[in-house]
Prior knowledge:
By secondary structure, this protein is an alpha+beta fold. The protein has 14 helices and 21 strands.
Amino acid sequence: xxxxxxxxxxxxxxxxxxxxxxxxxxxxxxxxxxxxxxxxxxxxxxxxxxxxxxxxxxxxxxxxxxxxxxxxxxxxxxxxxxxxxxxxxxxxxxxxxxxxxxxxxxxxxxxxxxxxxxxxxxxxxxxxxxxxxxxxxxxxxxxxxxxxxxxxxxxxxxxxxxxxxxxxxxxxxxxxxxxxxxxxxxxxxxxxxxxxxxxxxxxxxxxxxxxxxxxxxxxxxxxxxxxxxxxxxxxxxxxxxxxxxxxxxxxxxxxxxxxxxxxxxxxxxxxxxxxxxxxxxxxxxxxxxxxxxxxxxxxxxxxxxxxxxxxxxxxxxxxxxxxxxxxxxxxxxxxxxxxxxxxxxxxxxxxxxxxxxxxxxxxxxxxxxxxxxxxxxxxxxxxxxxxxxxxxxxxxxxxxxxxxxxxxxxxxxxxxxxxxxxxxxxxxxxxx
Length: 432
Ligand code: AMP
């Protein structure tokens, strides 16, 4: 099969690496890709927002299957356009991708179908939104309705902070994403990510993961796209996974099918494990980044037939096998990220780093120039490792990080700390 992968981050490098391992894949293209992806696929300078250009490329290269990595093309309807042109594609339709593209859409779907989530109201004007905040008090959460690249959520500790968030959003700081807001109850508990592969009617759970969103050690500093992750999430027991499938994922699939917009693709549920049980914080319509990287390391089965089965609507009798090991990834970012950062600093030592046992390095924002690898983004590298324990995976990942010579970059030194602590406590109980 000829495959076209769309995207250019660490998620897409992990997908390209896994798809390249499939005996079904003959030729893999990636648009636009990055210098790490170029080791697995032929990178092509296509503008993926230009659907006609993508379709033209697929016809010219006889592409059999398109895998869409990021959310923006999904929300823009790339899968609808490809399928209309007779090209098979993995991912939700434009309407189904609203599960990520509109927080209000998802909240209304939850309310109508009894899916556990934070209590909320939707607003299209600042005045009533502020009245609601004053009436409810703090803490309270303010969210822009649309896609805001991770910048659309303010967890406000005070009423003043929430009111300021309303002003910022309605003043156009987030463009169209902020012309409607959702204001919701602040949930407490531990967060976890749950991934399910969906074919419109059926879903199979993938693995669970936890990520670190804050930029600095100890989960401090501003939010980022994610500074590291590990899989499985120790809080996600078998019983909890079952509840999430029964109470959240399957009712969502049924509701989407009933409205004539069956959901196909990866459904990524951000969860809060509250005292009352798991509650949905948000949906994403694609794999998480960097969660995808740890999932792909743990996936034993061939990914490609699973993606095709999801697209074809035949997941019912499908099964996936996973390595029991823990996978952990440390994100290396350019100094200054998530604020302003420079591009073009030189990265050395990647080959030595990749030689550490159990280690796989995925590129997120790099480019090759004159035989050197240069930083070309905010999040630049994903240093991933498998281990029998979280502590071992963590030690391996940091051993690799320490072989990378890149003065222009930094990483957190504590990825997985919560899981390592849990592991230590359990070991102490077992061997006093
Ligand atoms: P989201 O973009 O919706 O995933 O939100 C980003 C982060 O904000 C989440 O990962 C949570 O840490 C936090 N968050 C979002 N909604 C809530 C909520 N209702 N209660 C508490 N924290 C929340």
